[in-house]
Amino acid sequence: MPVLEDIRALDFDNSQVTFWTIKGPNGLASEAPKYSGKWVETTDQLDAFLKTTLVEDLLRIEEVLDYGLLTQNNEASALHIPTDETYAHKILVEIQAEISEKKVTKVKQLLNSSLYLAKIIIEDDVIIAVRKTDSRWRTKKAANLKNIYFSDEQLAIDNCPHFELSKTFDFIIFRGDILILNKGAFESVLRHKQAQKDDFAELLQEEEFHAAFVDVAPLVNYIGDNKIQLRRACAIRMKGHYRDADFMERLRVNQAEYGFNIHFDVNGKIIATEESCPQIMKALLDHRLKSGFSTHIYDVQDTTPVLVR
């Protein structure tokens, strides 16, 4: 993947690091998120830790997959999505310049930050490595804990405020691309779930989708606000099998053979029920396939076509 190769090729030894904390996303869930950022002075030791963390994250990546609503990565892979398909620009605008008005001068300005990031500048390039904060950054958590340390064979109280940094980042912004290491954190921080809600709302406006059902209400109730089901609904719209008359006819004829129990009315429309909604979702995603070798039937996640030459 070019973006991964391009980042790895950079000279991190001769880079400058700025540490930013961000609060947000704020605002109505139906609108573009708002963020507020503060930068803070750091020691050379902390800068080195941030750079090392990013480099180690990059070295772990063996495969880069295109971001998809149902695509998942593991510890050795990352997902890729163009920056302009997300709200990342809202964060980038917020951290453009380390001006005095945005500098942290009091510890309370760090508390309740939703995420932190390392802004790493290497000549003309800027890499933004983002991590969602944990509970130790919350005011309530900090107020209810007392830090102690062990020295000279005894425990003592440390009254300095403490914050925790992870040894991994959740996603990396570089030029016009984002490499995602933690999909859930990425979607939460950039409100990518809202985009899925909007896509689902648009799906429900399609006459062709309604035409496939006697009543879509049971399916709407089943999907609700569930993140996983919203992803699947968006994937159903993207694949568009419900628009394909031949696909729908084969579904009616062959669904029982594939272990489904989906009912249709006399006009061939799907009768959605609370019990059948999971099966309907699988069917419209085309996620139940038969092996040509064992003839066993499987539920699958990745239905990328394989080209046979």
Structure summarized in a few sentences:
The protein has 309 residues and is an alpha+beta fold.
- Strand proportion, as a percent range, falls in 15-25%
Mean pLDDT: 90
Query: Rounded to an integer, what's the Rg over CA atoms?
Result: 24 Å
Major sheet size, sense and barrel closure: 8 strands, mixed
How many DSSP H or I helices? 11
Number of domains: 2
Q: What is the molecular shape? A: elongated
Fraction of residues in helix: 25-40%
* Uncertain segments: none
- N-to-C series of helices and strands: HEEHEEHEEHEEEEHHHHHHEEHEE
Termini gap? 24 Å
Strand order of the largest sheet: 2-1-5-6-9-10-4-3
Oligomer: single chain
By DSSP, the count of extended strands is 14
Indicate the structural class: alpha+beta
Description:
The model has no long low-confidence stretch (mean pLDDT 90). This protein is 32% helix and 23% strand. The chain has an 8-stranded mixed β-sheet, sandwiched between helices. Strands 7-8 form a two-stranded antiparallel ribbon. Strands 11-12 form a two-stranded antiparallel ribbon. The chain starts with a helix and ends in a 10-residue tail after the last strand. By secondary structure, the protein is of the alpha+beta class. The protein is built from 11 helices and 14 strands. The chain is elongated. The chain folds into 2 domains: 2-190, no CATH class; 194-299, no CATH class. InterPro entries: KwaB-like. This is Kiwa anti-phage protein KwaB-like domain-containing protein. Pfam families: KwaB (PF16162).
